[in-house]
């Protein structure tokens, strides 16, 4: 089967491409923006197998028509995600919403009528702190920022206006193993904005990759599915932060560094999910949070020695990135 993978060299795209190449069942066409980072990832993954790469901009409708030609399945993973999404709203509209529409229109013109798989997010439900979990497909969507509104609009475009054979996967907290390659200051500020009591469901990026790849042949047409790690991966942000920071050798940071909610509106938009149907169809939950932490420590490597040696300085710098610390300390936290 001929498969188009957008966002091929991002977090989830890289894991998905690795799995596609290891299986070797499909002809794969990759589509992503050309930059030094993506070129490096492409070069690294080329050692795993053969694939075709088309560099381009998803906001270009002409190139979208070209890459969709002859494809049997479109795996659409490309998107601008937080925290960058909240800094460049116009670009989010062009890429996340406009880019998805370009692919949909191109697929509609294709004689092959390809299956269209779209990675959305559990965050489309908005803040549901007072609503008992898990989140389910029959619940309403509520966009609360540029990112979630782009996912809501893209879902509506695919589900209600495309006429395609679509599948939507709402992904949970799929944390990359290479977190230190990100904009650390922005990432930390976002992280501190999530209350410690926040519910979240972790999912290993390779498990999402498994669900994406398995969807190619699975009977998922017309389904909204949920990509979470399952009951053993459901936790509060406090547990998540504590275990991750311990894995770095830093240790849990003071509560005052995190947002202290005064009402439900101060909570974030992650939550536990109903993944029962997704697991039955896609058999994807293979890695635990413990597995992720073990792999993260390996990826973290020599940095762990540095963080342990300079732990007080590292902690001080991280806390300085919190937009809440000074105010919370002034309140006696």
Q: Say how many strands there are.
A: 9
Backbone shape: globular
Name the structural class.
Answer: alpha/beta
Classified in CATH, the superfamily of the domain at 2-181 and 200-230 is NAD(P)-binding Rossmann-like Domain
Strand order of the largest sheet: 3-2-1-4-5-6-8
How much strand? Answer: 5-15%
Which radius of gyration do the C-alpha atoms yield? 20 Å
The main sheet comes to: 7 strands, parallel
Q: Can you give the helix content as a percent range?
A: 40-55%
- What is the string of helix and strand elements? EHEHEHEHEHEHEHEEHHHHHH
What are the low-pLDDT stretches, counting only 5+ consecutive residues below 50? none
What does the average pLDDT come to?
95
Q: What is the name of the CATH class of the domain at 2-181 and 200-230?
A: Alpha Beta
Examine the coordinates and then state which fold CATH places here, giving the name of the CATH topology of the domain at 2-181 and 200-230: Rossmann fold
Distance between the termini: 57 Å
Helix count, per DSSP?
A: 13
The CATH architecture term of the domain at 2-181 and 200-230 is 3-Layer(aba) Sandwich
